Amino acid sequence: CIINDVDRRTKITIIGRGLVPDVSVVDPRLLATVPPEATAQSGLDAITHCIEAYASIAHNRLTDTVALSAIATAWQVIERLVENPADEAAGWDMSHAALEAGMAFTNAILGATHAMSHPVGGFCDAPHGAINAVLLPHVIRFNAELDPSPYVELAEAVGVGPAGSDHATADRFAAEVAALSARVGLPGSLGALGVTRTDIDLLAAHALADACMATNPRQPTVDQVRQIYTEAL
Predict the structure, then answer these.
(1) Quick check: 212 pLDDT over 90?
(2) CA 52, CA 44: separation in Å to the nearest integer?
(3) Residue 10 pLDDT more than 80?
(4) How does 119-131 read in b/e, with b if 16+ C-beta sit within 10 Å?
């Protein structure tokens, strides 16, 4: 669960067995009443869960399987559901994908996108999914410098073709994530969410202390986190 610390203006992740429910009820009919922007935000959050869980250093065969299944489905239906929240088939597919994505990241945890998103959400009170959508392409490119292979496999799962080399394919995948985000109406920069250059030092300090950073496949320095924030402005 996430606690919004209003005094320190950041979000804190709490993880524990006691937070796991005995029963989870998923009813896609509820999505018909959700505003399209909330569907876009939560849908990109689910896609981020897939990508970060798949690239996480804590991933395993089970989380890989559900992450690939979830992203393939979510990628196909998110635009349909944003355009028509009453599309029952899209609602069922998106609900199932989001559930699988949750299974993936609950077991594999997440990465730098979420670690960097949490302080922005606390500091600027911006929607979590929208922040993830902005940061995710930049984090993909950063991580892919070390190892592009997870992103090549994710790209294949959503139908993004190879681009000559693994690094180029990962870069293409990052661009396609940004393009999908734009198509569902999400902002393309942190500046549009209220972040300024003067905020970056504080955000970077909180991001490095976030629990999600521990499972990112590439451990960044504070200067590298600042650079990602700056690129995302």
Answers:
(1) yes
(2) 12
(3) no
(4) bbbbbbebbbbbb
Residue 127 scores a pLDDT above 80: yes
**Among 9-13, 28-32, 65-69, the range of highest mean pLDDT:** 65-69
Which residues contact residue 173 at a Cβ distance below 8 angstroms, ignoring those fewer than 6 apart?
140, 151, 152, 154, 155, 158, 160
Report whether pLDDT(162) > 90: yes
* pTM across the whole model: 0.94
- Which residue do the tokens 């609900």 mark? 95
32-36, 70-74, 190-194: which has the minimum mean pLDDT?
Answer: 32-36
Q: Which residues, listed in sequence order, are joined to residue 217 by a DSSP beta bridge?
A: none
The secondary structure of the chain, three-state, reads CEEEECCCCEEEECCCHHHCCCCCCCCHHHHHHCCHHHHHHHHHHHHHHHHHHHHCCCCCHHHHHHHHHHHHHHHHHHHHHHHCCCCHHHHHHHHHHHHHHHHHHHHHCCCHHHHHHHHHHHHHCCCHHHHHHHHHHHHHHHHHHHCCHHHHHHHHHCCCCCCCCHHHHHHHHHHHHHHHHHHCCCCCCCHHHCCCHHHHHHHHHHHHHCHHHHHCCCCCCHHHHHHHHHHHC
Q: Cα–Cα distance between 145 and 165 in angstroms, integer? A: 12
